[in-house]
Amino acid sequence: MRISIELAVLLAVLAGLIAFAFGAERFYLQLFSKIMILAIFAMSLDLLVGYTGLVSFGHAAFYGLGAYTLWALSPETAAASFYLSLPASMAVAAVAALAIGLLVLRSSGVYFIMVTLAFSQMFFYFAQRSKSLGGSDGVYVNVRPDPTVLGFTPFNLGRPQQFYLVVLALMVLTYVLLRYVNASLFGRVLVGIKSNEARMRSLGFATYRYKLAAFVLAGALAGLAGYLDAAQFGFVNPGLFGWQLSGEVLMMVILGGMGTLHGPILGAFALVLIQDLFSDATKHWLLPMGIFIILAVLALPHGIAPWLKRFSPRAD
Amino acid sequence: MAEAILAARGLSRRFGGLTAVRDVTLDLRPGEIHAVIGPNGAGKTTLVNLLSGELAPSAGSILFEGHEIAGMSAPAIAQRGIARSYQRVNVFPDFSAFENCRLAAQSRVTSSLRLARSRRDLAEKAREMLGLVGLEDTRRPASAMSHGERRQLEIAMTLAMSPKVLLLDEPLAGMGIEESRRMTDLIRGLAANHAVLLVEHDMDAVFSVAQILTVMVDGAVLASGDPESVRRNRAVQDAYLGAGNA
C-alpha cells in the first residue's frame, strides 16, 4: 500500500517536471536545471551523510573535479564527445575519491569533517594559484559536449529545454541507482555502520572497505553533477571546489532530510528557490536566508521529507 | 581431552596504571561450556574484549585453532569464526529482527558487493537462527521488542555468523525466570556444535550448564576446573561464593 502510494507520488512529480520542460520559460528551465544538478550532488552526499554517517565537509572537491575534467577534455573551439567526457569526469572524481578516501576514512567524527574540508581546500587553492587552470579567473568550456553518435544527434545540450530533460533523466537515474544501492545488502551494511560501527566490526565487517566503496560512489556522482554544471554554464572556476559549495550541499541534505534521497532533492529546490526569492527582494538577502534556515531547522528538525511523510495516509 | 580450539596464554591488559586482566591462561574446547565467573570488576568483560579483538592485549597470546590471533582486528577475528554477544544488548534498533540477523549472516560472506545471488541463502539462515532462539515475530524493529526478546535476537545474531566459538557476555542479565530457563536450555544445546565461553552472574545457571569453571578476581584467575572442585576450593569460597554455597 505504502509503496504504491510512494510510487504514485514520485511518478506524479516526474510527470510535473517533464511537463515543466514544455511549458516554462527559458529562465526557469535554466534555473531548474541548475537545481536538479545540485540535487544530484546532494543525493551523492546523502549516501555519505544520511546512509553511512560520514559527514563530509569537502564534497565539492569531486564536483570541481568533474567540472575541470570536462574543461580539460574540451578542445578550444570544438566539442568533446559527451559519451567520453561524461564517464571520464566521473572516473576522475572516483579515482580522486579513492585516493582521498584511503586517507580521510581513517578518521571519524569531527576529525573527518576537518580533513575532508582540508582536502577540498587544497584543490581550491591549487586551482586558484595554477596558471594552467586559469587561476582565480577560471576557464571556459567554449563548446558544449556533443552527443552525436554515427551521424545521429539525439539532443543538443545548448538548448535549455533539451539540457533540462537530460539533467532530469540523469537525476532520475541517480535516484533510482541510489535507491537500489540502499535496498541492497551493501546498502544495509552502510546503514548498519551509521547506526553502530563498532557492532558491525564485531559482526565481522571490515567497515573501512565499505565506507571506502561508498565514498568512491559518492565522489563519482558528485563528479557527474560537476560535469553538468560545467556543461550548463560553460564556465569553470575554483569556487566549485570551495567550502561554501560543500556547506551549501550539506545544508540541502540536512534541510531536505538525511537518509531519504528524495529529501536532498527537495532540499536543493527549497534552498535555491528561497535564495532566489530573497535575493530578488533585497540585496541583504543573506539575513532573511539565515533566519529562514534557523527557523526551518527548529520547525523541522528531521528535514522536509520526514515531515511530508506525516501526510501520507498510512503514517502512524 | 580434546585439543583446545581457543587458548589464552598469559593474557594481560593494562589501562594506564590499572591491570584489568592479569596473566590469564585458559583453554576452550569444542563441545564444552566454559564459564567465567567473578565479582564485578574482575575483568571478565575485558577478557571477552581481548578474545574478540575489540581490545589488543598488552601481553600474552591468543591461539585460535593453533594460530596466533592476538592483535588482529575485531572483524578479522569474527571472520575466523569467533562470535560474541554483549552484556548490554547491542543490536540495530531501527532494523527488524530479521534484518539484524541477516546482517549478521551476511558478514561471513566475504564480499557483499557480489551478493545478489546468495540473498535467499542469507534470508534462510536468518530465519533458521531466529527460529532456533524462539523469536517468532521477526518483522518488528528491534527497538519495539522487549528486553528478553532483544537478548534472544542478540544470540540469534551471533549464531547467524556461523561461528565455531561463542563468547557470551552475561546472556541472562535482566531476564525473567522463565526467559532465563529457556536461554539456559538454548545455551546447553549450543554446546553440541560450538565451544562456548560463558560469562555469567547467575550461579544456578552457571553450575547447571558449565563443564569448566574459571573464577576471576582482580583480573587474575583464582581457580579453574570442574564445577565441583571449584565449589570446594577454599580460596574461591573466601573470595566469592561465600560459605553458604559450600
Q: How many domain units of chain A?
A: 1
Radius of gyration of chain A using CA atoms only: 19 Å
The shape of chain B, in one word, is: globular
Order of the strands making up the biggest sheet of chain A: 1-2
User: What ranges of chain B have pLDDT less than 50 throughout 5 or more consecutive residues?
Assistant: none
In DSSP terms (H or I, runs of 4 or more residues), the helix count of chain B works out at: 9
Estimate what percentage of residues of chain A fall within beta strands: under 5%
Strand order of the largest sheet of chain B: 6-7-8-3-9-10
**Mean pLDDT rating of chain B:** 88
Give the N-terminus to C-terminus distance of chain A in angstroms. Answer: 14 Å
Structural class of chain A: mainly alpha
Largest interface: A-B, 21 and 31 residues
Fraction of residues in helix of chain B: 25-40%
Q: Could you describe the 3D structure shown?
A:
The complex is a heterodimer of chains A (316) and B (246). Chain A is mainly α and 316 residues long. Chain A has one domain (37-309). Chain A is 72% helix and 1% strand. Chain A contains 12 helices and 2 strands, in the order αααααβαααβαααα. Chain A has helices at residues 2-23, 26-52, 60-73, 82-104, 110-129, 160-183, 185-202, 207-233, 243-256, 262-281, 286-299, 304-309, and strands spanning 139-140, 235-236. A two-stranded antiparallel sheet of chain A has the order 1-2. The longest helix of chain A has 27 residues, at 26-52. Chain A is globular, with a radius of gyration of 19 Å. The model of chain A has no long low-confidence stretch (mean pLDDT 92). Chain B is globular. Chain B is built from 9 helices and 10 strands. With 246 residues, chain B is of the alpha/beta class. The longest helix of chain B has 15 residues, at 119-133. The chains are: A mainly alpha (316), B alpha/beta (246). At the A-B interface, α7 and α8 of A face α2 and α3 of B.
